[in-house]
Write a structure and sequence with these properties.
The protein is of the alpha/beta class and 285 residues long. The chain is built from six helices and 13 strands. The structure holds 3-methylcatechol and fe (iii) ion.
């Protein structure tokens, strides 16, 4: 008897083709992936044309991706996938009673090797803006509350034109990025801008998907952080301006309540219009 491809037996045959040397984890997740892909395809009567359209989106995302543009990641982001894996990773890692700083997705615009700066330095260059912000706080152990020495705070955000420096030929290399290392007191402080909401890149597959789904491409104003300290789990997160639009409908689903912050008008400093205070709480491994 021949097995029709529509037959669920066919799916089992594909799963069973896995050889004995596949690791248990690979075996488990590919069996599940095949099952879900086949079920999805059967349930929706996916035709060759529709499958080809999806394939072309994937190929286009691949062709567009380089060290300035992670289009594949962006496609995952608009489907909420990066937020989901962030959530899962964070839950698996934590059985804590109290809460370290909540995580949020890394996103496609992180760059390694941002400039190493001194406390009190400014990450803004070549931009006239009235939204200078003095950001400061302490990095602590979330259980003991003790300050953490040697924590490296890696920060990045967009320019007022809505572009990260690698997207914008008019910004200096590594603009609006910096790494700051805490001393004994665990304190950090630096100058940045109060960021603005901005549209994620809209001229590729992620944009096509948003358009087809009748969704806007905007993210609320945010600042990214990657914080590392010896003996502690790294924190990948973002903070969001309470006054910003799109907190409720972020195009990439990254907002969490505990990450919403207040930019406070600041009188005490001729270099800054706003003050932003935020403490980061880390958990040990
Ligand atoms: C961004 O700026 C971003 O931070 C994320 C997570 C996704 C797309 C664009
Ligand atoms: Fe971002």
């Amino acid at each position: 008897m021949t097995t029709h491809k529509y037959d669920p037996q066919f799916t089992q045959a594909v799963i069973n083709a896995t050889g004995p040397k596949a690791t248990p984890r690979i075996r488990q997740i590919t069996a599940s992936l095949i099952q879900h892909l086949h079920d999805f395809t059967r349930e929706n009567d996916i035709t060759i044309d529709e499958w080809m359209a999806g394939l072309e989106l994937m190929n286009e995302a691949g062709r567009m991706s380089d060290d300035r543009r992670n289009e594949g990641q962006l496609v995952c982001d608009v489907f909420g996938l990066e937020t989901l894996v962030d959530e899962i990773t964070y839950k698996l890692a934590s059985d804590a009673k109290d809460e370290p700083t909540a995580t949020a997705i890394l996103g496609p615009f992180y760059r390694h090797e941002a400039p190493q700066l001194n406390m009190g330095d400014c990450i803004v260059s070549g931009i006239e803006s009235t939204d200078r912000t003095w950001m400061h706080g302490t990095v602590t152990d979330f259980l003991s509350g003790k300050p953490i020495e040697g924590a490296v705070l890696d920060v990045w955000h967009t320019a007022p034109n809505g572009l990260y420096e690698q997207q914008d030929p008019n910004q200096p290399d590594m603009n609006l990025r910096g790494r700051f290392t805490t001393g004994k007191d665990g304190k950090y402080n630096f100058y940045c801008l109060r960021p603005v909401p901005y549209p994620i890149p809209y001229d590729g597959p992620a944009g096509k998907i948003l358009q087809a789904l009748d969704r806007h491409p905007y993210r609320p104003a945010h600042i990214h952080f990657l914080i590392k300290a010896p003996g502690y789990k790294p924190i990948v997160t973002q903070i969001f301006d309470r006054q910003s639009k799109y907190l409720e409908d972020d195009a990439v689903f990254a907002v969490k309540d505990s990450l919403i912050v207040d930019f406070v008008p600041y009188q005490g400093d001729p270099q800054a219009e706003f003050e932003l205070h935020y403490n980061f709480k880390m958990a040990t491994f």
